[in-house]
Amino acid sequence: MKIENVRVHDLEESIVASGFPMLLYMDAAKFEDEVKTLRSWTVDGSNAHYQRALRLASAPDGSGHRNFLSGVLVSFNVTGTNVWWMQFERYHFAQIVSSMSKMHRLKKMVETEDFEFHDKVFENGQELLKSIAVYNPEKVDEEELVYNCPMGLELTARVTTNYLQLRTIYAQRKNHKLKEWRDFCEWIASLPYAREFIIMEKNNG
């Protein structure tokens, strides 16, 4: 698995906005100043917005108090196997912006041998795709290729999701039997403030 070209958006803005329910009026200039302060702040527990966000992140499931985490957007390119993608796509809150297409590109991949497999795909699985293309090179049946495609074929997509949903994924998949999920969760843990707001490591002592 590869996760590349990662972008995190609106982290500090969402932390500051977590205090909106108690606002009496909106001061746009003050909001910008508080966001800038958070961006330049070294975590020592003294920032009021950070402290409030920690409390809200610790709220019980279903309370709605953690909703500010949905504003922290994360975009990234991820390369995973067919097996992993089938499981990932159950998370409907993760938007797949664009992805490689087996139907459109598998024939070309086979012709040029320009594809990647997971290291646990048997060699005969890889050779099967090549043999289908060689059998009738003038008229390759794309459906035949797709239906015989090994589950270990690796494909890349651009994904956009948020901290609230990554928190759900981490809780459900961190000890998964599939190593790709464990690798994905290890990446989640590396995101800014992930240990406080996603893993809850700091809050749990």
Task: Describe the model.
The structure is a single chain. 45% of the residues lie in helices and 15% in strands. The protein is an alpha+beta fold and 205 residues long. It has helices spanning 11-17, 28-39, 48-57, 82-88, 102-112, 123-135, 142-147, 163-173, 179-189, 194-197; strands at 2-9, 73-81, 95-99, 154-162. The relative contact order is 0.17. The longest helix has 13 residues, at 123-135. Helix 8 (163-173) crosses helix 9. The protein has a four-stranded antiparallel β-sheet with strand order 1-2-4-3.
Query: What is the terminal separation in angstroms?
Result: 31 Å
Which percent band covers the strand fraction?
15-25%
Helical fraction: 40-55%
Largest sheet: 4 strands, antiparallel
The helix-strand sequence is: EHHHEHEHHHEHHH
Structural class: alpha+beta
Alpha carbon gyration radius: 22 Å
Major β-sheet strand ordering: 1-2-4-3
**What's the total number of strands?**
4
Number of helices: 10
User: What is the averaged pLDDT score?
Assistant: 84
